[in-house]
Automatic annotation (TrEMBL):
Organism: Labrus bergylta (ballan wrasse)
Recorded topology in the membrane: Peripheral membrane protein
Protein's job: May act as a scaffolding protein within caveolar membranes. Interacts directly with G-protein alpha subunits and can functionally regulate their activity.
Alphabetically ordered keywords of this record: Cell membrane, Golgi apparatus, Membrane, Transmembrane, Transmembrane helix
Cellular component, GO annotation: caveola; focal adhesion; Golgi membrane; sarcolemma
GO MF term (any one): molecular adaptor activity
Name this polypeptide is given: Caveolin
Residue spans crossing the bilayer: 71-93
Length: 154
């Protein structure tokens, strides 16, 4: 009988952590269930009512071709598009993160620190103008009641 021998240079702990991580990535590719609406099966797309039916062999071959076409065309299209789109998305998120961290948030914090008086004046203006307007509208409309009745005409 043949015996298989496997020699691994890495330590066991490093190998187990790496294999656990890569197995988790390969097994559950949508852990946050972002694409739960894309669980499309043949029965979701094509359904024959009991009154109109094709031959059984036509139904079986249609089902098989649907599944094979869906799987292979998805694999082919993702082979062509996944790497360039991943690179573009990574670049875009890197640029947006850099802008947010190094430009936008320091500017916002600078405004919040140096413009406290504007926030105080703005909140006072809103409280004086908007709050009084909406509270008076609420008092005017607070007593309105609507009764719906159904009249049956014969």
């Amino acid at each position: 009988e043949g015996m298989e021998v496997k020699v691994d240079v890495q330590s066991e702990e490093m190998n187990s952590n790496h294999s656990d991580t890569s197995q988790a990535l390969i097994q559950d590719r949508d852990p946050k269930r972002i694409n739960k609406s894309l669980k499309v099966t043949f029965e979701d797309v094509i359904a024959e009512p009991p009154s109109v039916r094709s031959f059984d062999k036509v139904w079986l071959w249609s089902h098989a071709l649907f599944e094979v076409a869906r799987l292979w065309f998805y694999c082919f299209i993702s082979l062509l598009l996944a790497v360039p789109l991943s690179l573009a998305a990574g670049l875009l998120f890197a640029v947006l993160s850099c802008l947010h961290i190094w430009l936008i948030m320091p500017f916002v914090q600078l405004l919040l620190i140096n413009m406290h008086w504007i926030r105080t004046v703005w909140s006072s203006i809103l409280n004086i103008l908007i709050s009084t307007y909406f509270s008076s509208i609420g008092k005017c409309c607070g007593r309105i009641t609507i009764h719906l009745e159904r009249h049956e005409d014969r």
